[in-house]
Design a protein that fits this description.
Length: about 130
Amino acid sequence: MPERPLSPHLSVYKLSKYTLATSILNRIAGLAVSAGLIALAWWLIAAASGASAYARASEVLGSGAFKVLYALLLIAFSYHLVAGLRHLVWDTGRYMERSQSRRSAGLVVGFGIALAIFFIYLAFFCGARAS
C-alpha cells in the first residue's frame, strides 16, 4: 500500500512571532465576543419576556462586574474587527511579506486599542446622563 501524503504541519510554516501572536489573539478575541453574546441573548430574552424579567436582567447586567465585562468585550470586539480586516486583506494576497506583516501587526494592535478606547468612551462616557 503506497504511503499517503501528510498534511502540512505547523513546522512547515515559517510564522514569525508577531504573526503567530496576532493570529492567536484574534482567535481568542473571537471566542470572547462569541461568549459575550450570551449576555446579549439574556437581555433580549428578558426584554421579550415582560417587565419583571427585564427589570431583573437590567439589575444584574447593569452591575459593576458586568460593566467591566462589557469593557473587556469591547476591547475583544475591536481587536477582532481590525484583525479580521487584516486577514481580509491577506486573502487578496497583499501585504504578506515579512516587513509588511510586521508593520500590519503593529497597526492591528494600535488601531484595535484606538477603536476600543472610542467604543468604551461611547458606551460609558457619552450620551444621556441621569440628573
